[in-house]
Amino acid sequence: MSQIDPPPASLSDSNSDILRAISAGLGIMSSGQRRIAAMILKDPHWAMQSNVKELAARAGVSAPTIVRFARTVGCEGLRDLKLKLAAALAVGAPYLHRSVTPDDTPADVARNVVGSVTAVLAEWQRQLAPADIERAAEAMHHARRVDCFGTGATSNFLAQDMQARLFRLGIVTNAFSDAHLQLVAAATQTREDVLLAISFVGRMPALLEAVAVAKERGATIIALTRTHTPLAALADIVLGIDVPRDATMRVGTDAYVVQLLMIEILMVIIGLKRGPSTISRLGEIHQILQTHAVDSDDPSLLHWGWRRVLRGEDADPASKADG
């Protein structure tokens, strides 16, 4: 069969609960599709975490048959099927965590939570678009200025973290969470600038308004968000963070960890682009922090500082020898 069958109305109409849709459609499925359906219904957690080859091997079908099955039950493809499976499992599970049951021991909780995040990360890694990451890194590397926008507790923290990392690499950068300051920053952007907008939700009105202003000014818009959001639609480059929604949190642990990893990947690539001088710069910063910072690995520095404070003396680094 060379073409993908359109989803039957009886199935696509009920795709709000994918497990119910699969069960309801068993009677009109082919034998191969029934084997896939039985496999998913028997172990939906495993199905959500497995790739197309693993699914095909267990069901005894070809990889294209897995994709056709996803379309048959009203999904856009395998990734959409997995996201709907994750949503269905989250709805049916305790609100503390989709992978934890009330009878789990602390050891079970640790294993299940870590295993869930690991599975999500593996699937997210398979979905990464290296070309888009490269384009984003290149744009920030050459930018006159990079403004990082975040709206909400998590996005604001991530924007601040991004700004701190870019600053260490020698890039002129700012981080804004206030809607008014975001508009001011957007109004002063040019074609030489980059706006990095961070939002897992991807539909915060004030953020979208500021991004639209920067886009009108000619800035390159990079969005760290889910791929099918209004923010993604505005962006020139989308760094996708499509992971299952949390049952109760707007930005759950999966989304938080994936965004941190994307920032880390970007920083390493940008650092490599900026060459040996940047590596030397980072080494100098590390040395200064080790020598002067109160959180130095050398505890004598901290103790020396506190001794001088307790004596009521000025903390003169040149006088360290008296400690």
Automatic annotation (TrEMBL):
GO MF annotation list: carbohydrate derivative binding; DNA binding; DNA-binding transcription factor activity
Keywords: DNA-binding, Transcription, Transcription regulation
A Pfam family matched in the record: HTH_6
Residues of the HTH rpiR-type domain: 16-92
Domain called SIS: residue spans: 136-276
GO biological process: carbohydrate derivative metabolic process
The protein's name: MurR/RpiR family transcriptional regulator
Organism taxonomic ancestry: Bacteria, Pseudomonadati, Pseudomonadota, Alphaproteobacteria, Hyphomicrobiales
